[in-house]
Amino acid sequence: MQSTTTIKETQINTAPFIKQSVTLQDKTWFQTGGPAKFYCEPTNNQEFKVALEFAKEHQLEIFILGAGANILISDDGFDGLVIRPQMKTLNFNKLVDGFALVTAGAGVLFPDLINSCLDQHVLGLEEFSGIPGTVGGATFINLHFFKFLLSQFLVSATVIHKQSLETLNVDQNWFDFGYNQSKLQDHEYYLLDATFKLNQATELETAYARGRSSEMIRYRAWRYPSKNTCGSFFRNFHDHEVSHYVGDKKMIFVAYYLDNFGTKGTLKYGDAIVSHQHANMLVNLGHATSQDIISVAREMQQMVYHKFGLVPQPECLLVGFKEYPLYTKASLIKP
Ligand SMILES: Cc1cc2nc3c(=O)[nH]c(=O)nc-3n(C[C@H](O)[C@H](O)[C@H](O)COP(=O)(O)OP(=O)(O)OC[C@H]3O[C@@H](n4cnc5c(N)ncnc54)[C@H](O)[C@@H]3O)c2cc1C
Prior knowledge:
Shape: globular
Bound molecules: flavin-adenine dinucleotide
Structural class: alpha+beta
CATH architecture of the largest domain: 2-Layer Sandwich
Distance between the termini: 39 Å
Order of helices and strands: EEHEEEEEHEHEEEEEHEEHEEEHEH
CATH topology of the largest domain: Uridine Diphospho-n-acetylenolpyruvylglucosamine Reductase, domain 3
CATH class of the largest domain: Alpha Beta
């Protein structure tokens, strides 16, 4: 259901591509949340810059929206400017040494990037087959799947500074990548495009890679929910946060802890439920609000805290909430 929040129309003159009071519910994978006060879809770097100028001039908070595959937007919406990059250029530069440099605009959908690479007989990124998102969102989180991280492929990028509007060409080191981590998370710079160093391949190698890619997509569809979810809701723990060992290894995987409570397919608030397929994935059955999803997540945090003394924290980005809606360890410890 559409949120009933209304945002007052303001008398601001916007560039033609900047709209007012635009619904976001249909632009996120969770299919929940209220509207954006201002919204635009820049199709090139110049329009992106105009949008930043607009936000600066009117002192608006900015949120960059990718495919909405890793966010939960508050039912009150976002009281600022949402920019959803639609820069979709793709450029292949095949090098003599067998490598290829592929430059993709921030708005390119990751599955499209993988398919274009396969069409060009360029391999590497198919390890991320079946993961939704854009190049911007993938770089923000340093997309990961088992041992593969996007930072193993990204060699350079173009970013723009939020305040000075200066455009920089940066290399991989600039991003300070880690697991679930990149410099973009300081919210000072936004990604305009990224360049990946990949391998040129033969027809036969590409055919194998294509098959593997299809198999990964099939496997993910069977193993995980594939709509109305943000994927993993909570991030894995950092090594220093946990003291529980399995064998000689610290148990950092949040799903290990969440699997203890029989919540799969049962723990539910409104239309928000823990997936029957995965204890760390929440699903909107159709009419959930963002608050329903938060209520399920808070219950999961409490369960893990009472049994293990740990408080899971979200991998999913929480957008537009006036206050942090989940528990922290401090808020769970009774005075
Ligand atoms: C079914 C499912 C399975 C998933 N599996 C995985 C998985 O295996 N591995 C994994 O790593 N993730 C996984 N995810 C999470 C998600 O796919 C990734 O985090 C993805 O990179 C999100 O991209 P997005 O474009 O949708 O970003 P959004 O969700 O729209 O935004 C995420 C963050 O990126 C920022 N951002 C977006 N574009 C830019 C930009 N141009 N410049 C600066 N910041 C930007 C946003 O501001 C926001 O903070 C899964 C999600 C789903 C729904």
